[in-house]
Design a protein that fits this description.
about 550 residues, 2 domains, Rossmann fold, disordered N terminus, alpha/beta, 9-stranded mixed β-sheet, Nucleotidyltransferase, domain 5
Amino acid sequence: MPTLQLEKIRLSNEERNEAKFSQIDWENISLYQFVREFWPVIEPGKPFVDGKHIEAICFHLEAVTDGRITRLLVNMPPRHAKSSIISVLWRVWTWIKKPATRFLCASYALSLSIRDNVKCRRLILSNKFQEHYGHIFQMTRDQNAKIKFENDKRGYSQAVSVGSSATGEGGDILLIDDPHSIDEKRSDVTREASLDWFKDTWCTRLNDQRTGAMVVVGQRVHGQDLSGYILSGETGEHWVHLNLPTEFEPDNRCVTNADNFHWEDWRVLEGDLLWGERFPESVVERAKRRHGPQGFAALYQQRPQPLSGKTFDEGNERLFSIDREAGLYLLETPRGLKPVFIKDCWHFTTSDVAAKAKEQNDWTVFATWAVTPNLDILLVDLKRGHWPIPEQKEQGYKVFLEHNSDTYQCIYFEDVGYQSAIGQELIALGVPCLPFQPQGDKVLRAGAASIWQRLGKLYFVKFAAWLVEFRKEIYGFPKEPHDDQVDNVSMACLIVRKPAPLSENRRDEADAPPPAEETGGLIPITEPLDPAKRIDFEPLPIVEPTRIDPFAYAAQIYGEGW
């Protein structure tokens, strides 16, 4: 590997600062120097924040421009300057070296491709660029639009979207920046359509299949996204993979090699951050809470599945007990017991109804929950069995009778054919029921629920007979053969995470109330667990719960004549 390249990668912070103010050889400027110098032109008002990952990206892109790398895959977390460097600055820098280069540039949305095209044009037309490089090429007047512009050396840049026909154009370098939107992790159809487009259309657009280059950059969204397809080897080509996770994982250290080319991740300790200057530990921790283990592993660690393979973590488990005589839920927190009056909570039941009753099929589950004023979610009771279809309705009715009170709301059923029909039959019996519309697959919904557990907002009743099997399923998910109890946990957390009963918006960790131990009123563990035995405890009279009129409730929800 050339000594000059090694020196560029290993520049110390002091050397970087000295280089900034040293005399630049504008004719032989490196991509890294070009990024530093022209960053203010494309990002005015946003100071350039240096990082070793920027040097690494520039090092690999230079190798694409000079032909040492013809297939490059870059996986990195969002908001780490990838588009500014790769889709804007690198393209213009390449024209300084090879102005006849023809770029075909795609993103999942055409508007994003056009955005970067516009930034390229503005950079080229800037006074600073024209001062140093106006003699190398100029923009043509007859082809100078947002979607496609051309220079007088016959190089051009064409913006397209993933899935388009590419308008019949070809390119010397094909660049895809973000092939998938985040939402495509929920849609197998859309994601697979993107893969078919890449294989059948995009790969055919190279002007020269022997020397042309392809670059794909983006964060991971799914195990079978475009990056996954490339890494599987199914392309039949050698791709250099620059993998830049937010937190360093020694067992997955990235090392890249090509002709006269070598690079490896500079980090040493597990957990070392990729760009700590902009994304310190506090910011990364917020991202973990916001996205959950599945989302963080994909978007930030570039692993669509966590290393542990688990969604829920035993280390985050919280338990509670019930003092029915005192009318209290006793939440066990790391700092002591938090008593919550049962009458101050609202209750509901989630369900997952199996279409068949055979032992090898999924179970039918009814889970009843309490929600505290602080939005702590408490699993109060769980009924689970392989019941024949007529008995499923009977079990749902029994759950309603057992838990119905003035604080009980309804039973939720997934709004899909068979389960919805069970709900309609129970409504006819006077049981309040509401539809739940699942979004995304089971793993994604469970990942959203795990956020609530990580925030200390999810509790399971202590010493329940069903707790052993329940734990086995949720902490083994998604590898356990059944997921019916997990589905109920996911449904409950998603219902509570809505700011209002029928709202489509959801709270993330920034909107979640603090955990119970931060709200005061704790009982130290050293004191008697029975609050009635505490000196400062003032018992309230036990009031017989008021039964609601299910027919009036149904009329209120569904209207008269339901």
